[in-house]
Amino acid sequence: MNNTTLKKISEILGLSISTISRALKDHPDISAKTKQRVVELATTLDYEPNANAINLRTSNSKLFGLIVPSISNWFYNAFIASVEEDSRRNGYSLMILQSGDDPSIEINNLKLCRQNRITGLFVCISPETTNIEPFLKLKEMDIPVIFFDKVPDDARCNKVCVADALSATMAANELISKKKKKIAGLFGNPHLLITQKRLEAFRKTIHEKSGAAQLIIDYAPSTEDAESKTIELLKEKPDAIFCMSDEILIGVMKAIQRKGLSIPKDLGVITISNGAAPKLYFPEITYVETSGHKLGKMAYSSMMACLGGSTFIQDLTIESILVEGGSL
Amino acid sequence: MNNTTLKKISEILGLSISTISRALKDHPDISAKTKQRVVELATTLDYEPNANAINLRTSNSKLFGLIVPSISNWFYNAFIASVEEDSRRNGYSLMILQSGDDPSIEINNLKLCRQNRITGLFVCISPETTNIEPFLKLKEMDIPVIFFDKVPDDARCNKVCVADALSATMAANELISKKKKKIAGLFGNPHLLITQKRLEAFRKTIHEKSGAAQLIIDYAPSTEDAESKTIELLKEKPDAIFCMSDEILIGVMKAIQRKGLSIPKDLGVITISNGAAPKLYFPEITYVETSGHKLGKMAYSSMMACLGGSTFIQDLTIESILVEGGSL
DNA sequence: CTGAAAGCGCTAACAC
DNA sequence: GTGTTAGCGCTTTCAG
User: For residue A226, what pLDDT band results from cuts at 50, 70 and 90?
Assistant: First the structure.
């Protein structure tokens, strides 16, 4: 691997390494002719600075770490795409690591980040992660950590989240305004905080705003479960189904198609979503948007704030918006 | 950022840097007691080796670059997840870069890869990329380049692809065996090689195997187009629709739902897919699988072969399989 | 305007 | 068994 280095260029040109270095970064000290000679040779030799050497010397890696349970997920995907874009635009690279919701892989990923001397970390912790000390240690070393989506319940952490409870409330309100009377709600893993928050908010809103409405709640950890649970739920003839997530929506829709029911004639459907899944169907499903893209933007600017010296602990939540389809 | 270094440990322990370095990598020369002392202190000081220093010294980065048009795509997503997994398992990290199908961003990403002295590159070029010299330059520097999915038409390149033409042939055969007589085929961007190959194979197979079958071809570069084109196509009352990709399938299905048609009663549907989209519907759509996951595995082992010293140019294609849903 | 020299953190001969 | 040394490629004082 015969890489061009400053030294090589300097030898060919009979100049010192520092002159080459300066010329290449357009330092005012260097004469125009020298600059031109240097730049020319560098170009023909296809010089690319060695990032490792620069990082080592300057201890500024221009590298962010991003740890996420899985990149194969609409929401996280949108988040990553958004962060990647902003990072690239600002000269940062991204090291994307999947944890598979396994705390031990998570720790390993963290190690990798530290070894690469990342400038900052974006992390969505796995549900089983209880010990956040390793993450806090980064903070002590002045490496900002932005927790996103699934965040630890700890005041010392910077967090950016979607509106958990509020999204459910908004969906509930929409159902009520559409005069739904027998509402089924399908939720995800009951052990997750997000499920509990959404369920509580949903139930509360329905009961408070419409004492008359009947509510049927069930849980479905996966799309397949959602489909079979929906088959059961449909026997009760609800006039609307609320889905807590995209995964659930897809199961619900399969069940509805299987039963040959028509939306919104036979029943209404509303979901909380990043926005892609509801648009798969006709009519498009009405949803409360929790945007991975927006969350990414927010996480990035939160990161920049930290890097800019802000020591203020940020705990941000993006607002949700209702996107009307034709499903209610 | 007060990072622990070998030097620091050596000073505390009154040993030399090299002893620490050796102790930490369990070098046989070092006595057991020394090793223990070193490892203990390293642990309490939370030592993490500086990857930049190591890479600089050893010029072996254990880092792969991966350039892809977009990570928000079922197929590429599966590919990335698969490569990431294999890489991580083998101690490699992945630098994932999106090009947005923009050749200038692509070149920039390539620069980044070179600056970070990647060990190897996985790349899916944008359709507009005509000059592959920059990629070949990497090869000259002994950095393996594995082109995947959208690959240049150049014999010097290592390639891993899905079966373009064959998948279309398989779908066509399936339609014929189901006695479809009036078949609509919806294809993507007509300028892309993959579209041309699939169209040609599809048309050829239908004509050869079933002279009687009527074929209606149209193009739809996006999901929205696919939906509106399908609305038109449906007026001709085809008894089956072939979709060239997931994006098209989704548009087709929306149109079918909009028209209130029922599958497979009113018409059959078959698609080429990575596997996720066809499972969104009931009945699940029959598809010819072109698996991003499998392609990732293949790309990774191709990379390993190159790294292992193989100079043989590989041009690999994964076989497709037919996955039967209930849509025909 | 240009050069010399130190040093970022680490590895790997080569000594002893 | 352990220490010394040189050097990976670069930036950045400090001299001249």
Answer: very high
Q: Report which residue is nearest nucleotide C13 when distances run from CA to C1'.
A: B18
Closest residue in B to A116 (Cα) is B51
Q: Are strands A120-123 and A63-68 parallel, antiparallel or unpaired?
A: parallel
Q: b/e string for B159-196 if b means 16 or more Cβ within 10 A?
A: bbbbbbbbbbbbbbbbbbeeebeebbbbbbeeeeebbe
Q: What is the 3-state secondary structure (H, E, C) of chain A?
A: CCCCCHHHHHHHHCCCHHHHHHHHCCCCCCCHHHHHHHHHHHHHCCCCCCHHHHHHHHCCCCEEEEEECCCCCHHHHHHHHHHHHHHHHCCCEEEEEECCCCHHHHHHHHHHHHHCCCCEEEECCCCCCCCCHHHHHHHHCCCCEEEECCCCCCCCCEEEEECHHHHHHHHHHHHHHCCCCEEEEEECCCCCHHHHHHHHHHHHHHHHHCCCCEEEEEECCCHHHHHHHHHHHHCCCCCEEEECCHHHHHHHHHHHHHCCCCCCCCCEEEEEECCCHHHHCCCCCEEEECCHHHHHHHHHHHHHHHHCCCCCCCEEEECCEEECCCCC
In three-state secondary structure terms, B68 is strand
pTM of the model: 0.92
- The pLDDT tens digits of the residues spanning B50-61 come to 999 999 999 989
CA distance B78 to B64: 17
Q: Provide the pLDDT confidence category of residue A2 given band limits of 50, 70 and 90.
A: low
CB contact under 8 A, B98 and A85: yes
B277-288 core/surface letters (b: 16 or more CB in 10 A; e: else): bbbbbbbbbbbb
Burial class (CB in 10 A: 0-12, 13-18, 19+), A312: exposed
Q: Are B205 and B310 in contact (CB under 8 A)?
A: no
Judged against a pLDDT cut of 80, whether residue B2 lies above it is answered with no
pLDDT in tens, B189-231: 998 888 999 999 999 999 998 778 899 999 999 999 999 999 9
Say yes or no to pLDDT of A261 above 60.
yes
The pLDDT tens digits of the residues spanning B109-152 come to: 999 999 999 999 999 999 889 899 999 999 889 999 999 999 99
What is the C-alpha to C-alpha distance for residues A193 and A161, in angstroms, rounded to an integer? 13
**B5 CB inside 7 Å of strand C:** yes
Residue B96 φ/ψ, nearest 5 degrees: -100, 125
- Residues of chain A neighbouring B254 (CB-CB closer than 8 A): 280-282
* Strand C contact with A153 (CB < 7 A): no
Averaged pLDDT for residues A46-71? 94
* Structural domains of chain A in order of their starting residue, each with its CATH number: 6-49 (no CATH), 61-162+293-320 (3.40.50.2300), 164-289 (3.40.50.2300)
- Distance from residue A75 (CA) to nucleotide C7 (C1'), in Å? 45
- Strand C close residues, chain A 8-27, CB < 7 angstroms: 14-19, 22
Q: For position A204, what pLDDT does the model report?
A: 95
Best mutation target, A113, A280, A284, to test chain B (most B CBs within 10 A):
A280
Is residue B84 within 8 A of residue A98, CB to CB? The reply is yes
- Binning chain B into helix, strand and coil, the percentages to the nearest 5 are 45, 20, 35
Q: Which two tokens stand for residue B242?
A: 């072939």
